[in-house]
Each structure stands twice: as structure tokens, then as C-alpha cells.
Design a protein that fits this description.
The protein is built from 6 helices and 15 strands. By secondary structure, it is an alpha+beta fold. The protein is elongated.
Amino acid sequence: MRTPTQSLVAFSISSFVLLGACKGDGGGGDPPAVDARPTTDAMGSSPDAQPGAPDAAPDPAAALWQAITGGNDYKNWPGFPGHEGVVASADHGVTHRRAFINETAAADLDGLPDGSILVKENLTSESPTDLAAITVMQKQGDDWYWVRFMPDGSHDVAGTTDDPAAAPCVASGCHGDLARNQDDYVFLNNEAQDAADIYAAITAVSDQYTTWEGFGAGAGTPPIEPDGSGGAHGMYNRAFVNDVANGDEQNLPDDSVLVKENFSANDAAALEGITIMKKIADVDPGNGDWFYVKLGPDGKVQLAGTLTDNAVSCTDSGCHDAAGTGGDFVFSN
């Protein structure tokens, strides 16, 4: 598995729903070539070009809308790897999201080359028909062009990364908090890909995490117990540790993996999500080298990152900081 600092395509959507906080031919190909480069006044407040007006500037947002809904509709594109289908999300003021990428982006998720398009549907429920808005990121050279479309194709936000007045999702500090050179402003990027790899490894037939022991040498299979974190991990939970960590909890070595199942009730069928901590050498030396992951009950990545880079809510809130001194950021320690 590549390390999160080498990759991870974090692609949110809070000021923007994907992009991810914060791509044609029926099968997910690239959109037709269009000149959708934004002009300095390419904002929702600017009037659209008028037919027949010889000096009217082209409307890049309209061109982008045509590119994602024309003969090569984005709904036929592949979902963002590790985030396929409708996924719960607290970003962009909605409750769920669905993310798509064009063929150009799918071919190089680490690099996201010129022409990559990321589309996120912002949904008010689990139903894909409850569409509130569609947020889109289009890579234009080394820059991103951002647009928030309404379901009818009109837009109220449009602009480039380097024009924060036009792209509040960047100016707000949401996508702008992501390093251009590491995550390229995309929340579902590199960290999410590494999180998906971790989940695949701990659910492999040869090493199912549910066969691991509980925290504490000789603990055996952990029971479901009331949550002691004030509900941060569900009303109930149970914690597993891999063989690397088992028996050495006071000095957790690299490659230790801690898995906590979060339940809404004292019942294994009431699984709400799964949270993971994995210690990876040199991933975040100032914070125990821990990489944090939160997944839905179906294994879909919801959050992923370290405290220093692309901090996730469990670290950004300062929660695990309380266990940093002497506990190696682990409350059970």
C-alpha cells in the first residue's frame, strides 16, 4: 500500500460537494473537447453571452454543463473509486452525495491531469432523485475551474482556484486547506485511496479483522460495550487489534492496526460505521505516525487522513490529542 503522503485523493464537498472539503459515450469516456476556460468575469453574477452579440464572451460554465450532460452524460461515468453509489455525507449542506469521474481522471487518480472532471451530486436523502445541486471541478492546465450547478443547469458559483472571490469553496478554507501539490484540492483523493486499501487488507479472507483479539494482551474476542467517548463512536462499540499490536499495546509498533466498530445498539446488526487507526512509519512523526479512517457500514470511505495533513474530524477536534501524552493517541492505552 502506498503511503498517504505519497497519494490520496481526498475529494470533499462541503463548500462544494465533492470535489471532495472538498468526468461521455455512455461508458465514462472523456467529454467532447470544449473551450471552457473561465474568463476573469466568469461568475454567476455575470450575464450569459447573448446569441448574436459579436463581442460577447463565451460562458465557460455553460460549456462545462454541456460537456457533462450532453451525449456523454456524467451519470454513465464511473463512480469515484472507494465512493461508488450514494454515500452519507455532511458536506455541502446535504445528507448524501454521489461522485463521478471522467475517463481522464480515472486513468490517473494520483496525477489528475488536464481535462479531468469530477462531478458530485449533492443529495438531501438516500434517493438519487433528491438532488439539491451538482458541484463540478474541471482541471484546466494546472488550475481547477469550480462550478455549482442547480439541477436545471443554472449556476450560482463559478470560478478558478486562483480567483477565490469566484470560488468560495476555496476561499472559505475548505478545499483551500488541501495542499495543491499533495491532494490537489480533492478530498476523495489520495487519503481515500489508501483508506480503501487498508479496509481491503483487514477484510481479506486470509485476515478478517473480526477474527482478531480485543485491545489488551489475551483479551480474546472483544464484546460490544457502551461507548465511553460521549457517542463519538456510536452508542456502543467494540475494538480489535491486529497481531502486530496485540500484546504490545504500551509500545505500539509500526503497522499496528486498531479497528473499532460503532453500533447504534447493543447488537452486531446495528453497525453504523467502522473507525480505524493504522501506524505507518513517518506518515506524521509529530503525531504518533497515525493514519485515521472512518468508513460506513458497507466499507465506503467517509474520512481519511492524519492530524497534520488533511486532518479528519477525530483529530481536528482535538479529541485524540487528549490521549497523546503517554497514550500514543490511543484512549484504550
